[in-house]
Amino acid sequence: MDFLKDYMVFAIVGICLCVGYIIKKLIAKDAFDRFIPLIVGVLGAGLNIWINMQVSAEVILAGLVSGLASTGLYEVFHQFIHK
Hints:
83 residues, mainly alpha, 3 helices
């Protein structure tokens, strides 16, 4: 799993974290929460394709990893604040 940190794009993590937080607070239905990782993963891949102006497996992977890392980062902060 250490090799995945090489694919992190911190600007994308920050953007996806903010978008995921906004979605979580605007749509307060527990049934919808399971789609947030999908949304931020696709958003991260799209942003990284846009930033790099190319489509390759590495660019898509970096975007997906960054988008999904934002979900994990949100959960870490959420657990830290509420405990």
